[in-house]
Amino acid sequence: MESPAVHDADGPAALAANSPDAAAPSPPPTKRRRTAPVLADCCRTCRLRKVKCSGNPGNGPCSNCARLELGCNFASVNHVEETTVSRTTPSHSHTEAGTLRKRAQRACSQCHSHKTKCSGDLPRCKRCEAANLPCEYTPAKRRFTNVRFQGSNKSVDTQPPAPGSAAQSDGIISPTLSSSSGGGGPGSVTLFTEASNLNAEDILARKHLILRHMDAYMDNVYWLPSQGFVHPDSTYREIHEGTLDPVHAAGICAVASSFVNPTETGREFAQRCSTQIELYLFQNVYKFSDDLLILFALNITFNVLQGSFAKVWQCFGIASRLMLGLRINWHVLPRGRSFIQQESLRRIGWHFFHMDRMLAGGYDEYICCRAENMRIPLPCDEAAYRENRPVVAERLYDKPGKPPSSINLHAFQIRLIDIRHRIQVITKRLCSASGTNLQHVDASKIMADINGLQNELTRFHSSLPSEVRLCDQSISRFMASPERPGYVFLHCHLAGCHIDLYRFFLPGQKEKIPLEILRKLPREFLARSQKQAVAHSMSFARFCDAIQNEVAQMRDTGKQELAADYSTIQVGTACVRVLLVAIQHQLFRDISQETTAPLWRLGKIDEAHLRFLIKSVQRVTEPWCGLLNMAQQAYDHNKTLVEEFDKSKRVADQRCADRAFRPRTDGDNRLPGTDSLSGADRWFHTPQMPTGPALQYPTSPASSFGIEPGTPGIPLLLAQARTASMDPSEMAAMYDSDNTIMGLTDLTGALPDGNPLMTPNDVPLMQINGSIDPAMYQQAPPGPSPGFALAQQGIFMDGYTGQFANGHREPNSFGQQTGYG
Q1: For residues 307-318, average pLDDT
Q2: Where is the composition biased (Low complexity) (predicted)?
């Protein structure tokens, strides 16, 4: 009887020698898995890494562990137990053994299914980013826990993982969830968590999230008027090094979130970023520092995009006073700052200059940043700004210099914005004139002012560099460059300035020049003005068609390519109305004669061509409908206007009051909520419309509630900020009439019941030589409640739980025209 085979370290030869039947032939041995011998001179670290160990040197770690600086049980054999394991929690950067990872820890589902190499980047890998594919990382099947190192105490052997890291590892990281903020949900990336509380994977995910929003900011926002105050190279370097201030990162993410993730989760993420900025500004309201200006600038831009105009008005009031107090506009800059920092402050000052004119809506009485007080140079050449190379740039009303110029597209945009504001001031005074003052209007003075502004626009166009002027070559060049938004803004608003200057002489406009004034003007002047409006509208629409075609021919880059910018919507809506009026009254005949519009791509002009141009304007607006609510409303408004014209063959000439006013809730109308401020619901309530009779201001015996002479009209953005009830469809109206004044009946409809408003017969309307615009209503603020008083006390006693507690010429030297009176 054979004894059972014994498997030991001696191998098959020893078995044959010990067998009694050694001489007999034996069947061939069956193949089996070879088990490695347990060597006493192999450390546990090398055994886990499955590498050959150099052995125990007797006085320290093995050569492998010493070279890779890993824990080795040979270093202190007497104090190491058998259960101690020298390994680390694997991450994107290091393996389980603690070495640098050469490839991704795990592939996304797309790369895994196609068996291609995955870069492992978050929130999307390079392959999915380039192909615009959904990128999802499924949770790993293998679980890793933090195992104590040598010399560690047994009491810390089983430390629970951080809540954020546990949620991160168990969930799916996708672009949608990465753009949503989130209260610890699966895959949420906490932008505002301190870096010390995040593991390597979370830090990398947050870095990629900020980089993605910074890229979107550079692609879509940076080249818009005076938005280039974020220095690209410095910001990217700080993001990669992890030193970017979280509140600055929140500002960039808030503005760019609409372009990264135009969904409800993306809007919620942007709103939470804005809330964090407002908390920080409230915490530091006692500081008189220029560091707060960039936060105001970013937050104001975000609220403009979201339509929260009440916040825009109030935040801009604080920001402009801070800028004036720091005397940034007088070129009094802090000492010890680099040229980049000084230029960024100057650009922020011009950003407020632009926002000031946008909010004023053509009413000079609401201007805070006066042109004569803006003594700072215009934004300098972009190359000098990025290279930190000091240059002396031109000022607002300096005579344009010869090429090479010391200014860039931002500076030309500022000059155009200033001209456009003065055009709006004159046209609003013309459209608001009424009463007995009409007999004092001088027709020659009106024609001189219109011609003067036209000459200023012509000089501005002549001052543009040759490579920026409108032609097929410049369109192809700039549409493929990062400067695309600035180039498009410049030419769209140059055409928009001409349209605003002449469109009020056309019929079918919501705001018209009084008939008494039109009768005093020569017929030739009126006919030429109408052709000017139509010709520039056609030029604008042809430009829209050209830029949209250029974008359509671009290869798929994995992101949405936008031909225009958000401000083009306003000019586009005015252009559609002008083109419809031209079709109705056949004003496109002999349009090429006596016009300053560029005869670019001019072909056969008939009704079919004008309808094609209207569709071209709608093509440019349509991609923005999924990003901004106001774009969707403007698009629907234009579509309805065209449909009504097709039915009635005339342009609808209706006022805002013809529509019913319904409550609207666009934008965030609360102070920071419960996620950031304890007890917010107790102290800060959502504003409600008053239901009872309106409160009255205390009146003196010598006067009563009325309208003072000289009171300016109300721009539409201010009316939206003052009233909490407005039809969402009226959002498109502000693009139709370029922030035109709301009539008295419109204001009555917008006010709550019980608000007294003086009738037009009680006071004279605007005087050309003395200035009364249509009446401005007044509404007394509700008296402070006890809860509100306690809330103010609670803010400053308890404080917030901070997330971040870590040679100038005069205007008339460049052709500025005088107004009426």
Answers
A1: 91
A2: 12-24, 171-180
Lowest mean pLDDT among 378-382, 613-617, 706-710, 725-729: 706-710
Residue 100: strand pairing partners: 94
**Amino acid at residue number 130:** A
Strand partners of residue 407: 380
Compute and round to an integer the Cα radius of gyration of the chain: 35
Instruction: Report yes or no on whether pTM surpasses 0.70.
Output: no
Torsion of CA 742, 743, 744, 747, to 10 degrees: -30
Instruction: Report the distance separating Cα 670 and Cα 689, nearest Å.
Output: 14
DSSP conformational letter for 543: H
- Nearest Cα residue to 585 out of 629, 636, 543, 526: 526
- Place 457 in a pLDDT band, splitting at 50, 70 and 90: very high
What was the pLDDT predicted at 722? 62
CATH numbers and ranges of domains, the chain: 37-87 (4.10.240)
d(CA 432, CA 766): 6
Q: Please say whether the beta carbons of 412 and 783 come within 8 A.
A: no
Tell me the two tokens of residue 326. 């720091």
Task: Indicate if the pLDDT at residue 248 is higher than 60.
Answer: yes
What are the backbone dihedrals phi and psi of residue 100, each rounded to the nearest 5 degrees, phi first?
-65, 135
Distances (CA, A) of 604 to 19, 118, 285, 482, 516: 108, 54, 61, 34, 36
**What is the pLDDT averaged over residues 266-274?**
93
Least confident piece of the model among 33-47, 360-374, 646-660:
646-660
Phi and psi, residue 173, nearest 5°: -95, 115
Looking up tokens 């006067």 gives 703
Q: What is the DSSP string of 449-499?
A: HHHHHHHHHHHHHHHS-TTTSSSHHHHHHHHTSTTHHHHHHHHHHHHHHHH
- Kindly state the average pLDDT of the residues 172-179: 32
Residue in the structure block whose two tokens are 């499955």: 50
pLDDT digits (tens, 9 = 90+) for 463-515: 999 999 999 999 999 999 999 999 999 999 999 999 999 999 998 777 788 88
3-state secondary structure 243-301: CCCHHHHHHHHHHHHHHHCCCHHHHHHHHHHHHHHHHHHHHCCCCCCCHHHHHHHHHHH
Reduced to 3 states (helix: H, G, I; strand: E, B; else coil), residue 533 is helix
Report which DSSP code applies to 277.
Answer: H
Rounded CA-CA distance 107/405 in Å is 50
DSSP per-residue letters across 546-578? HHHHHHHTSPP-SS---SS-TTHHHHHHHHHHH
Residue 349 belongs to what H/E stretch? helix 339-360
CB-CB contact of 406 with 393 (8 Å): yes
Beta partners for residue 137, in sequence order: 173
Indicate the helix (H) or strand (E) that contains 166. helix 163-170
